[in-house]
Amino acid sequence: MPASLIPTSQTSTVILTKTGSVTAVSDAVPFGMYTGSLEFLTGAKAQVAYVYKKLGGDVVDIELTPANVYAAYEEAVLEYSYIVNLHQSKNVLADVLGDATGTFDHRGEIESCTLSSSLGGDKVALKYPRFQFEYARRIGDGVASAAGFGGTVAQYSASFTPTSSQQDYDLQNIISSSAATGENDSGGAVPFEGKVEGKRVIVTQVFYKSPRIMWRFYGYYGGIGVVGNYSTYGQFADDSTFEIIPTWQNKLQAIMYEDSLYTRTSHYSYEIINNKLRLYPDPSYWDFGELDRIWVRFYVDSNAWDDDANYEAGVDGINNVNTLPFDNIPYENINSIGKQWIRKYCLALCKEMLGQIRGKFTTLPIPGDSVTLNHSELLGQAKEEQTQLRDSLTEMLKEMEYTELVKRDAEKTEAAATTLKGSPLPIFVG
To answer: Which of 18, 194, 251, 294 places its Cα 20 to 30 Å from the Cα of 166?
Structure first.
């Protein structure tokens, strides 16, 4: 303790020294996350002198030990790593859902050699997955599967023979029975054997058409002057037909093809409510044979927690922020911007500790008087500074999220385009 200090310290016999010691850091930090880094040890040592100067150690007593500063420095580095990793998780989570993750040790660090080749290696916090539009693609994949025109969900077809005078059919029971036996009602094998038990089937389409009606108006030989036959259009037409009919009409015919078949050449219409199929008209109106089968397309409503080879992404792996394979940022990879933030945050933590220590005694007696300690002021400053530092870092990182960068790039592009609009074109003289 400096002998020139007045009044002499009566709060503690331990006063912060002017310098720290590299060798003492490892024993002082509570978590030991960075004790293997010489740069961290050096930074923690230098922080002692910084805190000493900023808190006025040349003039007043500072009731802290170098160990207090070392612990605060480790906390500041961990807090910085936490905020940066949280920011990065917002950037990449949608692109890595379902990917392999690593194994974490008891300190929350990624264990070496536990990641797949796409994410593997040490210092995964510094690896940035490529943008894949993955989450949106999976949403589209699910919509496509439900609509029956794509996706990765396995689609199946089943059939049954309608019964005369029976208008209603339970597709759930029909398909479940075929899945249990492996055969349909005509003895044919089904591809969905054993895949339906206890699960709901989602019917996406019913193939109910049978070309038995309305051939008077929509026959095989439709031409330019007829309403048109969409199933065989052009089959019996000459070259002049293709020259006269505009291309856009062919496009429209292709779009309307399936709907026209159902509407104009269909034997039935139908409705489905809760997998209950109702045919219109009553099948008793027609004689049925082996060729009069009703076909349905469906998929099985799978358990979202079950792993299924038909899906591109399994249920294991990254599913939320907690399973992202982010390690604490290596101290060596923190740049000067981050290190300055760490120094200031560590100082604020030291103020908080000093305020807690001084708060044990509100006033101290001295010869002929008493001294009021500034613990409440220190605590207030410390909390305010910590909040400001966290908020400023969070706000800065928020402005650097990938979505924000894309917006700014768009603004730059638009501004450049506006500038180019006013640029005169070169004049070529030939």
So the answer is: 194
Q: How far apart are CA 74 and CA 31, in angstroms?
A: 8
> Residue 125: which of 171, 75, 161, 89 has the closest Cα?
89
In the three-class reduction of DSSP (H, G, I as helix; E, B as strand; rest coil), residue 401 is classed as coil
- 424 lies in a domain? no
Domain range for 322:
1-130+318-410
Domain count of the chain?
A: 2
Which residue intervals of 29-148 are DSSP H helices?
Answer: 38-54, 66-96, 134-147
Stated pTM of the model: 0.66
Question: Strands 276-280 and 168-170: what pairing?
Answer: antiparallel
> What's the per-residue H, E or C state across 291-333?
CCCEEEEEEECCCCCCCCCCCCCCCCCCCCHHHCCCCCCCHHH
Question: Residue 30: what pLDDT?
Answer: 95
| In a domain? residue 422 | no
Tell whether the torsion through CA atoms of 143, 147, 148 and 149 is positive or negative: negative
Amino acid type, 85: N
214 belongs to a structural domain: yes
Distances from the Cα of 331 to the Cα of 41, 79, 122, 138, angstroms: 10, 12, 13, 37
> What does the mean pLDDT of the chain come to?
79
Residue 81's contacts (CB-CB under 8 Å, 6 or more residues apart) are 125, 328, 329
One domain, residues 62 and 169: no
- Report if residue 149 sits inside a domain: no
**How many C-beta neighbours within 10 Å does residue 347 have?**
23
* pLDDT digit string, tens, across residues 264-305: 666 677 899 999 999 887 777 666 554 578 889 898 887 766
pLDDT, tens digit (0-9, with 9 covering 90-100), for 68-118: 999 999 999 999 999 999 999 888 888 777 777 777 777 767 776 555 444
Predicted pLDDT at 214: 43
> Whole-angstrom Cα distance, residue 250 to residue 243?
11
Tokens 């500034």, located at residue: 374
